[in-house]
Amino acid sequence: MAESPSLVARLRWVGRVLAVLSLLFGAAFVVLARRSAGAVGGVPSALFWVAAVLQFALAFVLLWRGRRG
């Protein structure tokens, strides 16, 4: 089934927007991880770091897949 060029362009735009949002959420998680570093046991900080890494990985995948077309 052939996809229309406007649909492909729209989906790429949505992918870029989601990648930018993912980068912003990743940055927010880094800030939260740094602020919660003094918590007992460091569990909240570790969870925020994991979330940040996952968000940055998602942004990388979205941007990489967008370039490959």
Describe this structure in words.
This protein has helices at about 5-35, 45-69. The protein has about 70 residues and is an all-alpha fold. It has one domain. α1 (about 5-35) runs antiparallel to α2 (about 45-69). The longest helix is centred in the N-terminal third of the chain and has 31 residues, at about 5-35. The radius of gyration is 16 Å and the shape is rod-shaped. The model has no long low-confidence stretch (mean pLDDT about 85).
Quick structural overview:
The protein is mostly helical. The chain has helices at residues 5-35, 43-68.
**What series of H and E elements makes up the topology?**
HH
- Structural class by sheet pairing and helices: mainly alpha
- Give the biggest beta sheet: none
Strand content bin:
under 5%
Total helices: the number is 2
Q: Say how many strands there are.
A: 0
For the termini, the CA-CA separation is 17 Å
Helical content band: over 70%
Rg computed from alpha carbons, rounded to a whole number of angstroms: 16 Å
Topology (SSEs and partners):
Blueprint: H1 5-35, H2 43-68
Helix pairs in contact: 1-2
Distinctive features:
69 residues; mainly alpha; 0% strand; rod-shaped
